[in-house]
Design a protein that fits this description.
The chain has helices at 15-23, 26-40, 84-97, 113-128, 142-151, 176-188, 205-216, 246-259, 276-284, 304-314, 321-327, and strands at 45-55, 101-106, 132-136, 155-157, 192-194, 197-199, 224-229, 264-267, 289-291, 317-318. By secondary structure, the protein is an alpha/beta fold. Strands 1, 2, 3, 4, 5, 6, 7, 8, 9 and 10 form a ten-stranded parallel sheet that branches. The longest helix is centred in the middle third of the chain and has 16 residues, at 113-128. Bound molecules: S-adenosylmethionine, 6-(5-methyl-2-OXO-imidazolidin-4-yl)-hexanoic acid and iron/sulfur cluster (SF4). 6-(5-methyl-2-OXO-imidazolidin-4-yl)-hexanoic acid is lined by residues 51, 67, 105, 136, 157, 159, 196, 226, 228, 231, 268-269, 296-299. 6-(5-methyl-2-OXO-imidazolidin-4-yl)-hexanoic acid (DTB) binds at residues 51, 67, 105, 136, 157, 159, 196, 226, 228, 231, 268-269, 296-299.
Length: 342
Amino acid sequence: MDSIEGADIRHDWQQGEIEGLLGRSFSDLMFHAQLIHRRYFDPNEIQVCTLQSVKTGGCPEDCKYCPQSIRHDSGVAAQALMSVEAVLAAARRARAAGATRFCMGAAWRRPKERDLLRVIEMVQAVKALGLQTCATLGMLTAEQARRLRTAGLDYYNHNIDTSPEFYPQLITTRTYRDRLETLAHVRAAGINVCCGGIIGMGESLADRAGMLLTLANLPQHPQSVPINQLIQVPGTPLHGARAVDPIEVVRMIAASRIVMPRSWIRLSAGRCEMSDETQALCFLAGANSIFYGERLLTTANPDEEHDRVLFRKLGLRFQAQAQAQGDARVSGAAGDGATRST
Ligand code: SAM
Ligand code: DTB
Ligand code: SF4
């Protein structure tokens, strides 16, 4: 247990318990998730993060879901690493639109030295705008993580994607253990961890529980947990997979909220394919973060106006910049949040 907040914050979850949560009556599951959510967060506040693909396509990895892998014929062309100036211009636009976090994504197995130097400049420049900084660049060594932290990196996104058992059916070019090792380097460097996965890839309920089990039983809960619904891109091996039922997405969000009470749970990829009502249920279930802006990395995200209207309808507000800066302080445990009274 890593906090005085007591019994909610656990690192000893069992597979059966999480399967039980995912399969519980919807009403009971939602009630439980809401109790936890309101204990640790303002339920009317949403954290918003804008994604920028700083290096698109041509990735040597073989992730079956990803349009950026060189092994799939998805039509995504390989591009060079963007200039610092162009990234900075995109960050300014994101800040003006209300984003508090700017995440730079690169389709790499791991960053090369020359590329890392440029990403470090990007991190410094984006940080100077007053935005929280996040990057997702593939595997990192301990030293690379330390250098990114020194540059001002607040968050590093590196997903485990699924359960350890299902993982080898999705990716063969890097192991689950490789991923956990990168996460350990990021944590040791004092960078907040952003780690989650994808649903809708043909995984079982046990695999979904296994993914949450791995995340919740890490030495610290990841401060951000992106839950992506698979975006089926033509040409990728998972194109044509059976679509996930919207209620299953809501259940996954609720279970994530219960097992990681202080983490920002992000309703990530797949919102274009979800109705407003499904998204509203996800926010009720404890999702309190989104990707905001018309593009994810290579695929579409809801346009900003649509999100603003939806948030107005639901009475949700964006987390303020100053508050976001406070949340980016690296802490000993997920969320940085003080317990809220309900
Ligand atoms: N290349 C880096 C890596 O994989 O570590 C960073 C970028 S990668 C695109 C980041 C994450 O996006 C993946 O781990 C995966 O969870 C998610 N992702 C990729 N393609 C997706 C898709 N088609 N649908 C939903 N999520 C996807
Ligand atoms: C995450 O979990 N989801 C984002 C972010 N981390 C980098 C990426 C979603 C990518 C969706 C497919 C695409 O746009 O290429
Ligand atoms: Fe490359 Fe990341 Fe896509 Fe895998 S998910 S193919 S590592 S860009």
